[in-house]
Design brief:
Structural class of chain A: mainly alpha
Helix content of chain B: over 70%
Number of strands of chain B: 2
Shape of chain A: globular
Number of domains of chain B: 1
Strand order of the largest sheet of chain B: 1-2
Number of helices of chain B: 21
Helix content of chain A: over 70%
Strand content of chain B: under 5%
Strand order of the largest sheet of chain A: 1-2
Shape of chain B: globular
Oligomer: heterodimer
Order of helices and strands of chain B: HHEEHHHHHHHHHHHHHHHHHHH
Radius of gyration of chain A: 20 Å
Distance between the termini of chain B: 38 Å
Largest sheet of chain A: 2 strands, antiparallel
Number of strands of chain A: 2
């Protein structure tokens, strides 16, 4: 259903784009994404399979998150060209596919289908954005090559193209490792994160929102499937690198988007802890809180300026516009994982998974780096209250969404039990 | 009932944050105090008003609250101190709102019967504390804020690992306190679990050498003393050791008992030493707090029923008298715009009633028999003496030193000859003084009434250690 809606709209809108005005086109895109969301919710909890396309719990939960990210991005952006919306739609289609298949070849196709539009989106602003996009493209292509190589070895080791096939031997281990690297690029696990800070800083903020939410969700869905039979030992290294490097490098950042880029690396590390037990509900909840919080942060930044946002420019935002200021404050605290905000329960759930898997060393490292992260999240969150002359020209809708998401983060923090069964049922 | 008591100040706090007038906050604090007083007076013993609502039942987390004798006592002292603060601290409505919010979260912390819910409140209380410091603090507040934040989180996040481990390694089906108590962590892991808790709670006690966040926290907070009074109540380390850390991993505690007793005695002595040379009120009170908490911790770590009982009573009493002294310092600041002890001279002549109130508070802090500091101190030292006479002697020195620093400060400010003019007690300061003195005297003369609910808990605590060692 969802696939049908998304692909129909993608194709139809490609043709339509040349004939209708851009604002109307934007509405069509929102309609398409909303219908996809609706179809997803209508079939919630009902598995469906057609060849290698396989809708199950993981697919539904992570597609939901990707759709939320896409809708938010489309709503936020003020682009004068219809191609922007179309590219988001195509990327969303790729995300849904990536989350909905076990077949490694189809995964690769989906990975490319979601990446190519994003390369184009990253160049939306010329100049500096171009360099970032080139970096993104080259490293992305490299990642795809790793993934393809891993697929080939996986086939050699198991005679099978289904992700999650159990196997043994050095060839199999190598295959898993390569697949992990390929997806690790997409979710920005260190040491495959080098593109992240530049691309986040150089791309338009709504596009960054999309990268941070949709791409992470879809790629983690694939990671869950690849890591299902057991995680390679190397994952511990990736997690350790990510949480250390992400949090430590974020400490010195003076620009909000770059800071959030390092934060996203650290969060990828925390999320990867859930791979140890393959608990999709815990990971899904974490991603939900992360999508809401980081999305809120980027949404606020995008109202301040579509370009770079040095922390200096956030000073005084609260006095200029209380809703946006509070939104950024709540988002920062949730990203930090301070109760009673939703981010705490996300952390709690994935840390529990790490504890279940007996990864006490990684758990302690993750907790200590979380404490370190307080420094920069607070700098970000408290900047809005300081004296300064921040400027913002928010639209009423953006303020409403900021308030709504901030309340949602608090509400999810108080009654996380309300959504967990729904996530588990998907 | 408990939920109502927790939500009432939170609700008033939120209303004030939305911009409602300050008077409403005083009303809220008063109502909260009366409700807490009622809960304390009608406390039937055992765990009263238990509430258990599912939070994340799948992983064994419940909104579980209840009021045992210990919680009831702290409800009373928190309600009282916050009301005292609301009466006299001349601060804007939003500040009072944050204070009320924080007091509600503290009530939740003391009433929690689920380890994870306790953790939730333990962390959440940080937010209003930080905001008060950030919005209303002094020049160096940002530095103080980061010190405070990083110390707290460096303790509380490793504690989250200990929280998870306490359930996973002990084999308890949920985070409910009774389940956890039935499944304490055993063997080699107990030490690590206990260490995780101990770090967080030692920072929040605070024990030397983890006290470094406390002096800047107080120095930089608003001179009215309201935030300091709340900060004093937030020093929940001794309580948390007693309620959670030690009973959940008694074997781990036994291995570290010697070290902890030593650190507690050092804290007591060191705090008193620094307080003696303090130049301003807030530094004096901050270090006096370190010293007193050292004594309280010594009692709890002794593992004897008297010691634990005394330590907790001292903690509760010090919330009132230290909080009261911070508020008093705020009154002096408002009159003379300084907190430097050397700048005050002979205030007893122009302000006799103010001076009398100060004398009561200082003497309670010194531990004069008949006032609220004495029973706790005495029981603590009695209990600790059984466990380790030498360390108790050290801590006892700090009590003597306490008399020295507190009375020297009092003498300088109020009795030395001087010509400073100032107003005496006025307006809302009269009920403040009356209520504070009444509490100090009642808690000093009838300690038995206040600790009757504590006794069985302290005995059960000592029994766990007797069985675990």
């Amino acid at each position: 259903m969802t696939l049908l809606v998304l692909s129909l709209f993608s194709v139809a809108l490609t043709l339509l784009g040349f004939f209708v005005s851009v604002p109307l086109f934007k509405r069509f895109t929102i309609l398409g994404l909303s219908l996809a969301l609706l179809s997803l919710l209508l079939t919630w909890g009902k598995p469906f399979a057609l060849g290698p396309y396989h809708v199950d719990g993981i697919s539904q939960v992570f597609t939901l998150l990707a759709l939320l990210g896409a809708l938010w991005t489309v709503g936020l952006v003020r682009s004068g060209r219809f191609e922007f919306y179309l590219l988001v739609l195509y990327a969303t289609l790729g995300m849904h596919l990536l989350a909905s298949t076990q077949n490694l070849i189809l995964m690769l196709v989906a990975l490319e289908a979601l990446s190519l539009p994003l390369y184009a989106l990253a160049t939306w602003r010329r100049g500096e954005g171009l360099e970032a996009a080139l970096k993104y493209f080259l490293l992305g292509a490299l990642a795809a090559a790793f993934f393809l190589y891993g697929t080939a070895l996986h086939y050699g080791a198991t005679g099978n193209l289904l992700a999650g096939t159990p196997g043994e031997g050095p060839l199999y281990a190598l295959a898993l490792g390569l697949l992990l690297v390929g997806l690790g690029f997409k979710v920005a696990l260190a040491p495959f994160h080098f593109w992240t800070p530049d691309v986040y800083q150089g791309s338009p903020t709504p596009v960054v929102l999309f990268m941070a939410t949709g791409v992470k969700a879809a790629a983690f869905a694939a990671l869950l499937r690849v890591a299902a039979p057991g995680v390679p030992d190397a994952l511990a290294l990736l997690v350790a690198f990510s949480v250390l490097l992400g949090n430590l490098a974020a400490l010195g950042q003076k620009e909000a988007k770059r800071l959030l880029a390092y934060s996203s690396i650290a969060h990828a590390g925390y999320m990867a802890l859930a791979l140890y037990t393959g608990n999709a509900t815990a990971l899904g909840f974490y991603l939900l809180t992360y999508v809401l919080a980081t999305g809120l942060a980027f949404a606020v930044l995008s109202e301040v300026s579509p370009d770079r946002v040095p922390l200096e420019r956030l000073k005084g935002l609260f006095h200029r516009d209380p809703l946006l200021g509070l939104g950024l404050f709540v988002a920062s605290l949730s990203l930090l994982g301070l109760p009673p905000l939703a981010g705490f329960w996300g952390k709690y759930l994935v840390f529990t998974e790490a504890a279940k898997a007996g990864q006490w060393g990684l758990l302690v490292l993750a907790l200590i780096t979380s404490a370190v992260s307080a420094y920069y999240y607070l700098a970000l969150g408290l900047a809005v209250f300081q004296k300064g002359a921040a400027e913002a020209h928010p639209r009423p809708l953006a303020r409403g969404v900021a308030l709504g998401v901030a309340l949602l983060l608090i509400l999810l923090g108080l009654i996380p039990g309300a959504v967990l069964p729904a996530l588990a049922a998907g | 009932m408990v939920i109502l008591a927790i939500l009432l100040p939170i609700l008033f706090g939120l209303l004030l944050l939305l911009g409602l007038p300050r008077a409403l906050g005083v009303l809220g604090a008063g109502l909260s105090f009366l409700l807490n007083l009622y809960l304390f007076l009608t406390h039937p013993g055992g765990t009263a008003h238990p509430v258990t609502l599912p939070l994340l039942p799948g992983v064994g987390v419940y909104w579980a609250f209840g009021l045992d004798g210990l919680s009831a006592l702290f409800f009373l002292t928190i309600g009282l101190t916050v009301f005292l603060g609301a009466l006299v601290a001349q601060v804007e409505g939003r500040f009072l709102g944050l204070a009320l919010l924080m007091s509600g979260l503290l009530l939740g912390l003391f009433a929690a019967r689920d380890l994870l819910v306790f953790y939730l409140f333990f962390e959440a209380t940080l937010i209003p504390a930080l905001l008060m410091l950030f919005f209303y603090g002094g020049e160096g507040r940002v530095r103080a804020l980061y010190t405070f934040l990083l110390f707290t989180l460096a303790g509380s996040l490793p504690m989250l690992a200990a929280v998870l481990a306490a359930k996973a390694l002990g084999g308890s089906p949920s985070f409910l306190l009774e389940d956890l108590l039935a499944h304490p962590v055993k063997g080699g892991a107990a030490l690590w679990v206990f260490l995780g808790f101990a770090l967080a709670f030692a920072i929040k006690t605070p024990l030397f050498p983890l006290h470094a966040w406390l002096p800047p926290f107080h120095q930089e907070n608003h001179p009215s003393g309201l935030a300091d009074a709340l900060g004093t109540l937030y020093k929940v380390g001794v309580f948390a050791f007693f309620r959670f850390a030690i009973p959940l991993a008694p074997e781990g505690f036994s291995e570290l008992q010697g070290l902890l007793l030593f650190l507690a005695a050092i804290s007591a002595l060191y705090g008193a030493w620094v307080a003696f040379s303090a130049k301003d009120f807030k530094t004096l009170l901050a270090y006096a707090g370190v010293s007193h908490m050292g004594v309280a911790a010594l009692g709890t770590f002794s593992g004897t029923p008297e010691g634990a009982l005394g330590g907790l009573y001292l903690l509760a009493a010090s919330g009132v008298y230290t909080g009261g002294l911070f508020l008093l310092a705020g009154r002096l600041y408002e009159r003379l715009h300084t907190l430097e002890i050397g700048r005050f001279r002979g205030l007893s002549a122009p302000a006799p009633a103010l001076s009398a109130l100060a004398l009561f508070l200082f003497l309670a802090m010194v531990g004069l028999p008949g006032l609220s500091g004495f029973p706790g101190e005495l029981m603590t030292l009695l209990g600790a003496y059984k466990q380790s006479p030498w360390l108790t002697a050290m801590a006892f020195l700090s009590v003597i030193a306490g008399a020295a620093y507190a009375l020297t400060a009092f003498q300088k400010v109020f009795w030395e000859e001087g010509t400073q003019k100032t107003e005496d007690l006025k307006g809302a300061e009269w009920p403040f003084a009356a209520l504070a003195v009444a509490a100090l005297v009642l808690m000093g003369v009838f300690p038995g009434f206040f600790v009757k609910g504590l006794k069985p808990l302290a005995e059960a605590f000592a029994k766990i250690l007797g069985g675990g060692a």
